[in-house]
Amino acid sequence: MFSERLRTIIDYSRIREQEPMKVHTTFRIGGPADYFVDVKDTEELMALLSLCREDGIPWHILGNGSNLLVADRGVKGVVIRLSGEFEGYEICREGPEGRLSAGAGIRLARLAKAAAGAGLSGLAFAGGIPGTLGGALVMNAGAYGGEMKDYVRSVTVADPDGSIIELDARDMEFGYRSSILQSKGYIALRAQFALSPGEPEELLAQIEDLNRKRREKQPLEYPSAGSTFKRPAGYFAGKLIMESGLKGYRVGGAAVSEKHCGFIINVEDASAEDVHRLIEKVKEIVHEKTGVMLEPEVKYWGEF
User: Measured by CB atoms within 10 angstroms of the end CB, which terminus of the chain is less buried, N or C?
Assistant: First the structure.
């Protein structure tokens, strides 16, 4: 039986059955996962993936749940969270430049502040992105003119068959909110960055200034998944949504933010279906009024 075999490779204290995903997503929405497992190192992860392959059990890697909508009926199989060694980082000086190496489970805000505090410049843009490094690599996360592709030197990944591969920046095929991790189904384990020198106080102040701008412009007081739609070529999604008369538009407990129309927010115990229906309605109306078809940036888990 899968649950019994699972406990032979992962300590019981780090396995939860029927775990509500609403407590693991920034939307605060989502039904239960069959199994929710914290893995502490690469050896455990590879053993778990091997077990899932043998038993035909689907699996998902969870970052901070910040770009994710989980169905009300939940998600089948195993949800894996990278903890332990995946949450650490190391800084190495090489002359005037510095190398930063970090595990895929580390929060971006912590990583950006660690780099700034060590006098390494480049990651300030990520200081307010509410995700993990792994998720940022998958999506080539970016903000305020910076993207992961600008600073990543190499990424260590596991492929779906269990091999560990080292990819340099060119191999990552970074694009707008995309990377080879999506197309190949690779799991990011660790990344190395090449960063330039800077003054710690100035870099930390830059992070705080960008975070202040986020608080002023984004509806951070409500649960959301961040920017709901990708930026259409030549347009801004939020501006198109506002000009289509959808500011504050609501389906159930989900609404288009009045503060920033690019965000769909959970204003009153929204269900995943509320959010999904609202996303589809926004796409339909914006397309009717502007001719532009918006593409969701949010990822869906489960059945909708």
Answer: N
pTM of the model: 0.93
Amino acid in position 3: S
Q: Are 161 and 52 in contact (CB under 8 A)?
A: no
Catalytic residues: 177, 227, 297
Q: What is the mean pLDDT of the chain?
A: 95
Q: How confident is the model at residue 1 (pLDDT cuts 50, 70, 90)?
A: confident
Question: What pLDDT digit, counting tens, does each position of 37-49 carry?
Answer: 999 999 999 999 9
The answer to whether 49 and 162 have CB atoms below 8 angstroms apart is: yes
- Cα distance between residue 205 and residue 198, in whole Å: 12
Range of weakest confidence among 73-77, 163-167, 193-197 = 193-197
Question: CA 185 → CA 60, 87, 257, distances in Å?
Answer: 10, 21, 33
Q: How many Å from the N-terminal Cα to the C-terminal Cα in the chain?
A: 29
The tokens of 81 are what?
């969270």
Q: Are the beta carbons of 264 and 276 closer than 8 angstroms?
A: no
List the one residue out of 187, 179, 193 whose CA is nearest residue 157. 187
Q: Could you tell me if 83 and 45 are in contact, meaning their C-beta atoms sit under 8 angstroms apart?
A: no
User: What is the DSSP code string of 31-56?
Assistant: -EEEEEEEE-SHHHHHHHHHHHHHHT
Work out the number of other CB atoms within 10 angstroms of the CB of residue 16: 15
Residue type for 266, please?
N
pLDDT tens, 139-162? 999 999 999 999 999 999 999 888
Average pLDDT over residues 50-63: 96
Tokens of 266: 């959970």
Residues 101, 191: Cα–Cα separation, whole Å: 6
Rounded to whole angstroms, the Cα distance separating 230 from 71 reads 21
